[in-house]
Every structure is written in C-alpha cells, then in structure tokens.
C-alpha cells in the first residue's frame, strides 16, 4: 500500500472512531501534510526513504511535548499549554520523515491504569464483553493503544512508569514495548516519576515497534539520565561476548518466575501463559522456573516511590511558573483566595491529588524512614532478584559487582509471564454510579509490570489468543510479557516476535 493510501486510511479511521476518545487533537488533512506524504512516497519509489517510518503517521501521548499541537497531560492545569519546543523523540521521528498523527488521551499526568482519569473523559476500547459492555483500554497510555488498535496511526508513543504502555497493549490486543530505562530520551516528556519514566512504543506488530524504537534509541545530551555513547558501546560489547551472542542462533533459556503464579490470576491469563510457554518449548527453547522473592513487595514499593517523585515533580504547577491560574483573588492574605491552593485545587483531578498527598506523606519527616527509605531498599532487592536469575549480568554495574550478582551459565535469557493478572474490566465497573472498583484495586493491575520498571529492565507485552480456533467469540485475548536483562532490548523484541499473534 502506498504511504498516501495508508495515511488516508488512518485519517478515515480517526473520523469513524472519534467516539473512542483515543486522540485528543489530530493533525488536519492539510495540503502541506499531503505534500509531505507524497514526497515520502516518491523517496520510497526511488529506493531512498529517509527511514522505515518515512511518511508514516505516529500518535504521541499528550504528555510528550509538541510545538504544533497543545500538550495538556489531560489535566485542567495545562489546559492551554503549547510547548515552545518539540520533545527530542518527536523531533527524532519527524527528522526521520514521520508525521504527528495527533495527541493521545491518557490518565492525567500518566497516573492510572484505565485511562479514565482524563479531563477529556475516558478512552474507550473497541473491545466489549459478552454483554456488549465496553471494556477498559488500560492506562495510562490507553489513547495511544486504542489509536493503534483501530489503525488511526501507524504506531504511537506512550510513557511507561509502572506499566502504562504494557497494560493498555495487553487490554487492546496491541504490542507495547518499554525499553531499558535511559535508552530513549525523556527531554520534553512531562515528568511523573523521573527515576521510572520511560518512553515506550505501541504498534500493531513487533516489526512496527522496532522500526520506531530504532529511531528513538539514540543518545540525547539534553537528558542527563539518557545513556551516553560510551555506556551504549559498553552494553553492545557485553552482548557480543560469545556466551551471549550465541543466543541468536541457539535455543533460549526461558525463565518462569514462580512468584507471578498468584492465586488471583484469572484462568484466561493462566491459560495464555502456560500455552505460550508450551509453544516456546515446542520451538526448541528450554523452560526453567526461577524465583524472584521480592516481587510480592514490588507493588507496594512502587506506590510509595512513584507518588513521592510525583508530589515533588508536580510542585511546580503553582499558577506562577506552570499551570493555569484560576480567575479570582489570588492574594495569599485574602480569606477568599490563596493562589497556590486555588490553582492546584481546580487544576488537578482526584487521582493526581491522591498521589500528591500520598507522596507528600511518605516524604514527610515522620514517615520518611518508614516508607520512602524502605521502598528504596525494596527497589534495590528487586534489582538484585533479577540480576540473580539472568544469564547476562547488568552491563552497567561495575565489573566486580556485576560478577557477584551474575548467575552466569545457570541463568535464563528472558522471563515470560502475563502482563496483567486478569482481562480488562468493564469501564462501568471503574467509574460513574456503578463503580465497584476502588483506586487501590486499580493499582493491583500493575502487579506484573512494576517489577521491571523498578529495575529499569526492557519489557514488552504481546497479544496471544487462546480458546476455540474456529470461533473468535470464544477466544480469549491476553497480553504476554517478555522481560530481559538491562540493555537486552533486542532479545526481548526477538522473543516477542516468536509469540506475537499466536493462537495457542
Ligand atoms: N498505573 C501506574 C500508576 O498509576 C502506572 C502508570 C504509568 O506507567 N504511567 O502509577
């Protein structure tokens, strides 16, 4: 299909699926836009495309700054905000010939698991249950996932702090990849929890995800947490070591983390998991059970650390430096108005306020030792757990430290587990009068995604189906997660490719 046809089809889908609320702002079908796609088509015909994404439409989660379209983070406080610059990832993709399809709906500032905490209203997935009830699109990058699932764009970027790319991918039947922390620039991406925030890619298949990742996987001197060229070459030479390089041709050692086999795991998730493992074994790979004992503490640690960083990050929305200043008196001595309280009271939604309160509490003098410091310790244990099971050592650890923790030949190459403990819930059970799910219950959906986030590891969710092959009505769609050692992003993508779209 020509790029022009592909783009026209995306725009048609944006129109016909507008009610899903996946894209908040879209690029209008301007003549200038048409020219750019036509130019890309011509380059492609001549055999000189700028890149694999030349002329393709990419949607960006609305917490990624774009110069030409507003960046709202789905928050009242950034209602009218237009960034004076493009985020590095936007610029990189534009330089590679891609076009911005639009800005995708999300949970406010990336806080949520179902894309229902948005000033624009919830994202709706095309998926329904047997009673025709709409199901959650997952969050917080639900708009990015639904835009891909309904072909409103070629691929999209989201952010993944604790699972926000992988969970929506699992719920919408798309592929969602969170690269190793620090590979992709965060410059121009509105921070939620800096030590965890990672820009991720969503696509309808692994190959489109890889095409986008290849463009954004570059050093950016403007992001101090982005890996330097020397660290990148250290990782490359580590992966080229004979013991690791042979994994491309030989059978892989697939790890099954025992602690992920929780009693709350829905039968459909368990079936997708066990059949994916059986399939990998049939393909000649070997299965090994491994133990990650700190996993059960990871969720609690994440929900202390992420809100703590969020409360600090969001302090700048004070109506002076950032954030909409509400109408009315803002004199701090006035009884009617206090600028800071009014700005934040009106600007933030309830989930963001909850996170700010949680974070301010755990960072307060009386609770710091009991909560924040303990959670940091758990984070370190989670990292140790992973290092103890992977064949490859953490390439950025100092050589001595890496060796001690490396499980060497005994270790596994990747871990395979479910992305989510259960299928997507109904939207009606999450919001409105019929809501039966508390915020705390929503946090539990992240149980399998936060450990990789705490350790900064690459992780991907790929869709697989199980059940009756003849009758798609009886098939269960589930996301299977592949987690690799730090820097082993290529292997994670490769294993995902083995599993993607399989009917097991
Ligand atoms: N659901 C998690 C949270 O609300 C993850 C969010 C994310 O990855 N941005 O913190």
Q: Care to describe what's here?
A:
This protein has 504 residues and is an alpha/beta fold. The chain folds into three domains: 3-228, Alpha-Beta Complex (Amidase signature (AS) enzymes); 230-294 and 370-459 and 474-499, Amidase signature (AS) enzymes; 302-363, no CATH class. Helix content is 37%, strand content 12%. It is built from 17 helices and eleven strands. It has helices spanning 3-16, 31-46, 88-95, 142-149, 166-172, 206-216, 229-239, 242-245, 267-282, 295-313, 339-347, 350-362, 368-389, 399-405, 439-443, 450-455, 489-499, and strands at 23-26, 57-61, 99-104, 155-160, 175-178, 198-203, 253-257, 286-290, 414-418, 459-466, 476-484. Strands 1-3-2-4-6-5-10-11-9-7-8 form an eleven-stranded mixed β-sheet, sandwiched between helices. Helix 9 links the parallel strand 7 and strand 8. It is globular, with a radius of gyration of 22 Å. It starts with a helix and ends in a 5-residue tail after the last helix. Bound molecules: glutamine. Glutamine binds next to strand 4. Glutamine (GLN) binds at residues 110-113, 140, 159-164, 192, 306, 446.
